[in-house]
Design goal:
alpha+beta; three-stranded antiparallel sheet; disordered N terminus
Length: 207
């Protein structure tokens, strides 16, 4: 009589993914650390920003220009000048230096009129948000501010299983957030300070 060997049933890729998801749900993420101190520093120009360049007593070379996707700008007499990653003051000094070839002692003022910010400092919202998008970080920005900007969450969102992905000292960390408690129950304790570069991930409910 032959011994029957036990065989392990094969699982589909979708089944393995479901098991992995259930395993992840069993280990909830830690809440974000209580940190009310907003990061300081001047605003850095980013691709997509609109900037106004005023050259004193030289209106013919004064104009508003967009920062191109490669981070550079082009103005009259100045071509392909790096703008992204600089403050408006630093960019003004660079424009002055470039104009010295044509204008004696130019005085330049740079004003950012439309804000997007550097990619590394944008806050990204993905998943079951009403309008998933990237947002320019603003000093003092909170989780509630982000949710207002994206129009809240969809009816299919697992709000209390959402998470923040944050890079701290070069290492990626994840923190659990309670969007349902914040939006539906008005639990202000579920609000938290956002940081430049944060990614808010809102998963879909399985039920």
């Amino acid at each position: 009589m032959r011994n029957r060997q036990r065989t392990t049933p094969k699982l589909s890729l979708a089944a393995w993914a479901a098991l992995a998801l259930l395993g992840a749900c069993a280990a909830p993420l830690p809440p974000a650390p209580a940190d009310t101190a907003a990061p300081g520093g001047d605003y850095l120009i980013g691709p997509g920003d609109m900037i106004s360049i005023a050259v004193w007593r030289n209106p013919e070379v004064s104009q508003s220009v967009p920062v191109r996707p490669d981070g550079k700008i082009t103005t009259p007499l100045v071509e392909d000048l790096q703008a992204a990653g600089k403050t408006s003051t630093a960019l003004a000094r660079d424009v002055e230096k470039a104009l010295e070839k044509y204008i004696q002692q130019p005085v330049v003022t740079v004003i950012v009129t439309s804000f997007v910010g550097p990619y590394a400092e944008q806050i990204r919202v993905i998943g079951q948000a009403a309008r998933p998008q990237a947002l320019a970080y603003r000093q003092g920005m909170s989780l509630m501010d982000v949710l207002i900007a994206v129009g809240g969450v969809t009816d299919f969102a697992a709000g209390n299983k959402a998470r923040i992905v944050r890079t701290v000292d070069g290492r990626q960390q994840q923190f659990g957030v309670r969007l349902n408690d914040l939006l539906k129950d008005g639990d202000i304790g579920a609000n938290m300070a956002m940081r430049p570069g944060d990614v808010l991930v809102i998963p879909e409910s399985l039920f």
